[in-house]
Amino acid sequence: MSGAPDSMWQGSGVDLDAYLTRVGYQEDVAPDLATLRGLHTAHVDAIPFDNLDALLGRTAVPLDLDSVQEKIVRQGRGGWCLEQVVLMAAVLDRIGFTFTAFAGRTRIRSGSKVGPALHVALCVELDGERWLHDVSFGANGLHEPIRLAEGARLDGDWPFDLVREPTGEHVLRFLRPEGPAELYGFTTDVRYPSDFELLNHFCLTHPRSPFNHRMILQRTRAKVRHLLVGTALTEIRPGEPATSRELDAAEALSAPEEIFGITLEPRDVRTLGKTLAGP
């Protein structure tokens, strides 16, 4: 079982066994809905959103599959959206799924419908239906795929729906107890790995990037979700309004490991501590 040798998603180069071990997925895999759902849930349970490289003085966040696997699979780190999509796309390609990538305009924090389309997710075609497969939006994101159709809905502990706007954009909404939160709007215009490089450069270097000047960590698990932006920690539990509190400097420095399961090298902990302390 392998992706086509010339596939742009590099399925033939992914270490599938190592990935499945990393996310704790123990079932057989096949290009079917059960596998798609199972991998989605296992991935978001195991792998946090992590922008720490941008704060640690890294001059680049490489998106080649070898680098992404080294960081997320072998080192046990998280990754930001583009890294996780590269990894997930290679895994799905290796298994034999048919899919394309698209970009979405995030609304959850900015509220803007016309901001840059920085978030990337996958549209999987399976048995005549399309599925939105998005493992990298973080604490507010999907816990399993949702059918990509107007009026589609996911119920359960973490409910979501999809609505269609007059512009033709789909909007993914997280149905919180305090009211729906629009996560991002998107069309399914196809994006390619070469597009990822441009988005990656913006996220790492642009002065208006939300990811290169403060710590952003997110983790989605079965019964609790955590989001850390700067020193503000938000906790979300099923059926309850979100709660937030400010962390002190020591708590913020220990949060990557203690809350988000990210183990850093000692030198990176020291660098992060200096970054959080500011000038």
From TrEMBL:
Q: Which Pfam families match?
A: Acetyltransf_2
User: What's the superkingdom here?
Assistant: Bacteria
* Residue stretches spanning the membrane: none
- Gene3D superfamilies noted in UniProt: Arylamine N-acetyltransferase, Cysteine proteinases
Q: Name one GO molecular function term.
A: acetyltransferase activity
SUPFAM superfamilies in UniProt: Cysteine proteinases
Return the PANTHER family for the record.
ARYLAMINE N-ACETYLTRANSFERASE 4-RELATED, N-HYDROXYARYLAMINE O-ACETYLTRANSFERASE
Which family does the record assign? Belongs to the arylamine N-acetyltransferase family.
Protein known as = Arylamine N-acetyltransferase
Name the species this protein comes from: Umezawaea endophytica
